[in-house]
Amino acid sequence: xxxxxxxxxxxxxxxxxxxxxxxxxxxxxxxxxxxxxxxxxxxxxxxxxxxxxxxxxxxxxxxxxxxxxxxxxxxxxxxxxxxxxxxxxxxxxxxxxxxxxxxxxxxxxxxxxxxxxxxxxxxxxxxxxxxxxxxxxxxxxxxxxxxxxxxxxxxxxxxxxxxxxxxxxxxxxxxxxxxxxxx
Length: 183
Fold this sequence. Notes:
Layout lengths: L8 H16 L9 H15 L9 H20 L8 H15 L7 H9 L12 H10 L2 H11 L6 H17 L4 H4 L1
């Protein structure tokens, strides 16, 4: 870290902390919370010190630089799904998610079993395309995001998971499936 002339390391770190705090909550998104953005802003600011022109105020230089770099960071890391390439984007989002949230393998079996349970306690096999299509067409939009996370084996809070499984069970029963046919 290059310290500008006439300043101490403590003063520079205070300015960097101030800027990181300013942008931490403004730039959080997706899997990046305020702490992640704060840390990223500090790294960006420290890297920028080598390019600092000492004729300008340090705080203004760092604020503009960090804000622009965080905009780039958010643009590069944020991925919005469209109808055209849902499979490609879903894989892309999951790969980013798995990088950011390492999977805890100590309870993977219990979590997977819980995610796959239906309201009556039977385990649903998601590989059956016909059933899959029915669920995709009729599941309420409010439940779809958590449903896709469950399908990918990600954690979903128990009350939400139970609501989704109950809705799936109702959808399948409304479409003429009985418990013995699909489970």
